[in-house]
Each structure stands twice: as structure tokens, then as C-alpha cells.
Specification:
- It comes from Williamsoniiplasma somnilux.
- It holds the Pfam family FUR.
- About 45% of the residues lie in helices and about 15% in strands.
- The chain is an alpha+beta fold.
- A 3-stranded mixed sheet has the order 4-3-5.
- It has 2 domains: about 80 residues, Orthogonal Bundle (Arc Repressor Mutant, subunit A); about 55 residues, 2-Layer Sandwich (Dna Ligase, domain 1), CATH 3.30.1490.190.
Length: about 150
């Protein structure tokens, strides 16, 4: 099982405590699935299963899918489809932004400290104008990276 650094371990504990307080069973596979999603960079379901199979010989794949569904329903993780085919996952934050080159497929995640520069007030105002109270948002920007622009 991948080792978590201090920040990742804090995320893990926060998620585990939330689920425990919500009354969900925290099985070994469920907890390990959460660790894998925290540790890996935008893993797909197959990435998660492959990582878990390193530790567990006979893994119940449905347990992994059910855990992913639970984490999505509780807004603990986001799902993204950058190439239009594979779904990948990341731990949910109150703001998320990715830049994708439509030529080579490179995806860059913009970190929270950079997102702080965005006028979040405007996003909240737009949501409010449409009778929605925003608690998180995702932005996906598509374009051409510098490398592809030179070709």
C-alpha cells in the first residue's frame, strides 16, 4: 500500500472520520481505496484496482466500484474525463481547475494557491443569480500547449 505523507495522511483521517460519523463501515478495502486515490495522481478505476492488487491477492472489484460510488455521492472525490474516454478521480476540493492540451492530451492541475487569484466571488455571484449556493466548482480549460504550438 502506498505510504502517505503528513498532508495526505491528514486528508485520509478527515475522510475516514467523516465516513465513520456518517455511519459507513470502514472495511480494509474501502480504507485502502481511499489511500490509493489520495496517493496516485488522477487514477482511473483500473489504476486503483491494480494498486490494490499489489497488496491484496483476491480483491472484490465490486467493493472498489462501490467505494468509488460512495465517495462520489458524498462529494469526497471528483471524477474527470480529460480524454473523453477514461474517467479518473481526485480528492475533492472547494475549487478545481485543469488545463488540457487538445493536441497532445497533456493535463496540468492548477494548485489551490494559484486558484486563490481567481475571482471566486464572481463564480459565487453567478451561481447565486441562478438560485444555486455554490460549495465547490471545477473548471476545465482546453487549448494548445506551448510545445504543440511550435509544431
Amino acid at each position: 500500500m502506498p505510504k502517505l505523507n503528513n498532508q495526505q495522511n491528514q486528508q485520509y483521517e478527515k475522510i475516514a472520520n467523516f465516513l465513520r460519523n456518517e455511519g459507513f463501515r470502514l472495511t480494509e478495502i474501502r480504507l485502502s481505496t481511499i489511500k490509493v486515490i489520495i496517493k496516485l495522481d488522477h487514477p482511473t478505476t483500473m489504476d486503483i484496482i491494480a494498486e490494490l492488487q499489489k497488496e491484496y491477492k483476491n480483491i472484490n472489484v465490486m467493493s472498489v466500484y462501490n467505494t468509488i460510488d460512495l465517495l462520489l455521492q458524498k462529494h469526497i472525490i471528483f471524477s474527470n474525463t480529460f480524454n473523453g474516454k477514461q474517467i479518473c478521480y481526485e480528492i475533492a476540493t472547494n475549487k478545481s481547475m485543469h488545463l488540457k492540451c487538445d493536441n497532445c492530451g497533456q493535463v496540468q492541475e492548477i494548485k489551490n494557491h494559484e486558484l486563490d487569484k481567481i475571482q471566486i466571488l464572481n463564480i459565487n455571484e453567478i451561481a447565486k443569480n441562478h438560485s444555486i449556493t455554490a460549495d465547490h466548482f471545477k473548471i476545465e480549460v482546453h487549448g494548445t500547449c506551448a510545445k504543440c504550438a511550435l509544431k
